[in-house]
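The protein record quoted for completeness.
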Amino acid sequence: MTRDDLTTRLSSLVGDAGLITEADRMSGYLTDWRHAYAGSAAAVVRPASTAEVAAVVRLCREAGVAVVPQGGNTGLCGGSMPDSSGRQVVLSLDRMRRIRGVDPVNQTITVEAGVILQSVQEVAAAEGCLFPLSLGAEGSCTIGGNLSTNAGGTGVLRYGNMRDLTLGLEVVLPDGRIWNGLRGLRKDNTGYDLKHLFIGAEGTLGVITAAVLKLFPAVRSRATAWVALPSPQAAVDLIGLVRALCGDRLTGFEILSRQSLDFVLRHRAGSRDLLGAVHPWYVLVELSDTLPGAGLDGLLETALAEAFDRAVASDAVVASGPAQVAALWALREGISEAQNFEGPSLKHDVTVPVSSIAAFVEQTDRALRAAVPGIRIVTYGHIGDGNLHYNLSKPVGSDDDAFRARAEELARVVYDSTSSFDGSISAEHGLGQSKRDVIATYKDATELDLMRGIKGLFDPGSLMNPGKVLPHA
């Protein structure tokens, strides 16, 4: 089938509004938001329904054309980018933005894959409920993308990641069949729980088109503190102390290095350091409760007083109102963008046991500084679940291209250290194409064989997002 034949038949399935073939209109779908990955495509297809997705997948299978599912294109590992051949089809879910239903009694919301995460949060709030997934790209990332990478964000400590927040899925399989698993059940013990195969699979086993997600009671009181610490070990000690005193009211616990904060203060307009004095580490601590007037400020102040008594905390401020809360979260959420102003940003998303964080940071920092004297290490993340974003910026005044050329070498430093603590080289960003091959070094060979077997069963022609997640055998 020629390209013209393919596009003609695709147009007959999705209409003019659902097909893009012009180079200038396709460009936004063929480059990721950081311009770190780029590809080419025969067409960008934008189905408006699950039936249209299924028809497109069937046609592409018949034509032997690979399909690359894409959500909000906010990923960091190139998982939603086509290759450079120009023969693949990008299947964007950005027209599938329907909220199919909200059930406050069952505490579920059913949404299509193209719905923006922030929209789900807002619809839930209008029903007096909470959808707790929260991350920096929530205004542009989609539920399908969140599911494909098993997104985590800042609320994992209390609510879990997308795997924990999902009850049911609707998926178009690589052969075009539709699996309707949209059940809002907390208990369904009838064999294999298939949804977990597709969550985190980055579109390699099928196209997620809709999901039933869990809702929670709305938060009606909140307390937030910015705490200065002498070390990562102090952060581990502090989270244990806060957990012991506050229980499951502890919703967020984010750590960041002074280097991370310096970049935000330098490049984010209006940001300021509320503590004044320079400290090596900081955490953002947040408590929440479903009860209004739950006295969380007092509870948090009690925990911090004990932290000072134990010499765990060096300084702290409890936010005095919503504006200050937003300002504190802006310091945390602004790190990734601010780092881009400092030249190439080599991003790593790793996880180790919480008990190993301090030793991991010490060992990894030492190895990186030995490899590149003057390297600026931007460490931050969700310390409550052991997930650190271990990003690297070049030494001041050094050459951009020379630093980029060492990306693979420096990634190995971070990943070798992660592996030595029985950690994972991807906590929430996925593998995509950036970690596809290196994962073979760090994942058990039997586990990889099982994953290849599952891929072969679902997609024997390897036409569903090929070249992602699985290393070449």
